[in-house]
Amino acid sequence: MSFFGLGGTGLKVQIKLAGSPETSNGIIPLDHYPSWKVRKNPFAVLRYPHAKPDNDPAIPDTQSVVSDITTPTMGTPDSLYNGAAHVSARHGPVYAYSAEEDIEGEVTILLPPGKKADHLGIKVQFIGRIDMGAAAHEGRPRYDFISLAKELVPPGTIYQSKSVFPFHFRNIEKQHESYRGRNVSVRYLIKVAVERKFLPPIQKEHELIVQIRSTPPPVNEPIKMEVGIEECLHIEFEYERRCYHLHDVILGKINFLLVRIKIKHMELAVIRRETSGEGVALSSTASSNPAASLTVPHDSTGNNNILTETQTLIKYEIMDGAPVKGETIPVRLYLHGIPADLTPTYDAVNNRFSVRYFLNLVLVDEEDRRYFKQQEIILWRKVFG
User: Fold this and answer.
1) pTM
2) Residue 56, C-beta contacts closer than 8 angstroms, at least 6 positions apart
3) C-alpha span between 103 and 127 (Å, rounded)
4) Strand, helix or coil at 271?
5) Residue 205's beta-bridge partner residues?
6) Would you give the DSSP letter of residue 69?
7) Is the pLDDT at 5 greater than 60, yes or no?
């Protein structure tokens, strides 16, 4: 005997979002689901370029996107892609929505033939959520910065085997871009709940990706700094700009002004630092002015409430052999070639997390001692995708 016809009816909830890249400029197809992981194959982003169909180069080849699908299996990294697009069995084709795009779609309630379902109302919610995950937090691991609800169906009884209810959320201010990190994530959800008496509600969630296109920063000064070890090593590094869009090229040069130690080689790495927990804004301010010297890596967080995850996205050897005084090493680094999903810089979002990017210059001497200097760069999104 089931309560109000819901206990054993096999009721199922499906969520389908309306719109496609063909019908709206604010919906963008993605070739994979964004992740914080670094791809094992650095050429995965170049293996299948975003080709257009031969008959009309202005129209995306969405048919091939759907047909050439690879789904990661158990034991296979979900960031290694062998097809033109990546969709999962749960999410279907992966689309990103602009911040100005309205969210609409339909909710489908399925019942086996001959069954009925009594309910106390069906509602749909649009939620913007920060999930802290394993990060330190005070009391609750999540924070909803957007929560809108609409009633789809008043309390009653469903007799049809298939019932479809449309929904539409207009003019929503999506203030943060979607982010999936190691210890924190920013998620936008469509959540449907079928309320029941004496029983917990039947719930279904559908996540959507939001991307926010920015404008070029008004001030974008070059980075120029002299660093070194007293009477041993003195170098000057210069980068063309401080702010870069996600498909930009970092250009610069490194000048050796004094060399009295035997350098074996020099490396340049791009580092992503994710900081999560309460009071991230104070932590970011405290670490924004590093000393102008070559140092040895160490953890300087010092705050038990702050969890920091440092990830090396890519590392290049830009010099091999001992330099001499007056030598100049050029730097050219393509951000689009990094085998990871770059995101814009997040600066103390709701004072709960930040994501910052650094260029890490490392010199290794013949005794394998490592000297490094980190310089923060600001990333912003110029185009969707």
Assistant:
1) 0.78
2) none
3) 11
4) strand
5) 191
6) B
7) no
